[in-house]
## 1
Amino acid sequence: MLKQSLELKQTQKLSPLQIQTIKLIELPIQELEQRIRKEMEENPVLDEDVPNEKEEEEAPREVSLSEYKEDDAIPSYRLRSDNYNTKDERPQYSTFSVKESFTQSLQEQLGYRSLSERQYAVASFIIGSLDDDGYLRRSIDSLVDDISFRANIETDEDEVLEMLKVVQEFEPAGVGARDLRECLLLQIRHCRKTPEVENATKILTHHFHEFTSKHFQKIMSRMNLTEVELKAAMAKILKLNPSPGGQIDDTYTDQAQQIVPDFLLEYRDGELKLSMPRFSIPELRVNRKYADILMDAANSSEREKKEAAAFVKKKLDSAKWFVEAVKQRHNTLSSTMQAIVDYQHDYFVDGDETHLKPMVLKDIAEKTGYDISTISRVVNSKYIETHFGIYSLKYFFSEGLENQDGEEVSTRELKKALQECVDNENKRKPLTDDELVDRMTEKGYKVARRTIAKYRDQLGIPKARLRKEL
């Protein structure tokens, strides 16, 4: 038996302006510039505004079909994103400069090798298959299949291995390794042959498991080494780089890039001054000739002109939404960053991590009145330049725990204290997690053992047994 029922649902439909604003809020400053340039290329109604003194006196106007009358004078058809003032001098700001990309460096070295076109193509494919840290973590069989399918080159395991050996000769040493052991062996073969290097090579070749497990007594016994000899060999190994890819570029892989801070925070005369650097963000206006077309067509009965007017009207609306979205992005980012600065005022004065208060997205959402999702979009991929360094906005957010005095402290402060405990421990007898709990208690932090283990993992600190040194 079929049964019908009515159900009332309330749904919210986002307006074009809201959708546009959400998309722009997510973009860091450089991508925003690219997005604006792209919009100007795709929407002929938009022009970069170069204001003159007469136009500055006029208020910005929106363009509407209802405005046009037969005897109307031509108004100034401008839709300006007026949160940027071209008269203001752009502030100076720092950038993170990233060197030549990892892939570009290897491809350049490949170009100096005397190889056939086929060999070059296979080696180039191998380079493109490397991970960010310089390792080849794909099987040779899968590479053979991929090269055949994607590069249209029928190859085999022997040829791929031969070209892999070529890549493994490139700088930085260790690149193209398939695991950590091979990575370290590729590097140590470049070292001058000494007793220490020979012992280190034997350790990596024949006793790698014991080395990673820090079973030093087994290594000394099996290789008939003294403690002094083992220490000398270990010192050679520890100088090697386990992540050769990060040597050239540990942030970006495709091309050289810069990170430009979205915000600039200065500390002057005892006050924090927040601003938003203008990074080639053009001011926008509606192109006059398109507005003229629209005005001319508004009083015409000709079908073609009416259709042209409808097209221009659509583009004008799109331009209006885009310019308003840029303005709303600016206001949203400014309000959110100011709330973060106010919340973390003491920290931003001197950059002392102990002054960094626990703060989550909800705290800033409540201060600004924005949704948590909006705050998340603002924080993502944005940076601020302060008088003590450049930081990702995500850096300032952390959960909190209570200390023994009942005061809430940030997890970042706890991790810093934990790191200090590990740094100051006796490396011949590293502290266990239980002992770290005791040390943290002595410092005034109430932390459970499972929390210590979690923070230790997040900090990349191995277990006590793996931290043991001779």
## 2
Amino acid sequence: MDFSPYLLAIVLAWIVAQGTKFLINSVKGRWVIDYRQLYTSGSMPSSHSASVIALMSVIGLRDGVDTAVFGLVTLFAAIVMYDAFMVRRSTGEQGEAIQALIKEQKSKVRLPRAAKGHEPLEVAVGALIGLAVGLGVFFIYQ
């Protein structure tokens, strides 16, 4: 195959996670279709986690876990996942609090977007999707 397995793992993991997010939110909304779920952040599962774990899996399986690049991608994955459920989640909660204050004051100020982070379970499910996609890509390229 001519396409990089590393890039394929990232793209497929993102597509699977975002598609899963779209389906979950469509079912929760009683099939009210919200196409923004195909590209927005937050919610179940984490596409960021899926992508970095898919990349980490392919690198580990193809190049070995004792390589510098595997160490680097492991650090990168840890930072991305920590950010998803600690930093972005906190800023999302703060954004929702600011929105509530603006609404309470009946201000004409345009409501800022509150970017949502993830619950730990959403990050874990994203990581599992990434692992599955990474393994699939690895075996396709064997």
## 3
Amino acid sequence: MKPRHTIQAVIRSGDESGYVAECVDFPVVTQGATVEESLSNLREAVGLMLDGEDLAAWNLSPNPSIVVMIELEPDYA
């Protein structure tokens, strides 16, 4: 199987406040008061999870990127 070059994640509104960032294929979930804070926390959490890990064991290429989809609630008139 070809190693993946990206880690997929989703950021969505929290149940009560802020934003939740969650990786699709990895056990990483974090949160922040803003989208920007959630992105920063996600980057840090993924880095901590993969620190010292064999990336090939996770089927990842060296230095993978994080691709983030942001779910937004539409504004209604």
## 4
Amino acid sequence: MEFDKELDASGLGCPLPILKSKKSLSDMASGQVLKIVATDPGSVKDMQAFCKQTGNELLSSVEDNKTYFFFVRKK
């Protein structure tokens, strides 16, 4: 999937992946896509809730060998 910016939140626990995602998205234009890489299993539910609350679109959420990849389109 194509993306405009990547955030590596590997090794960070809750709530840091969400806080760093929020900061990264604030610097992006509407419609751009942020790729987030995380290792915290709680980030799956956190990212879903974050997108629902903020109106950003969670395009993809994939787990591969205990690493989580999210693609979020800024509203």
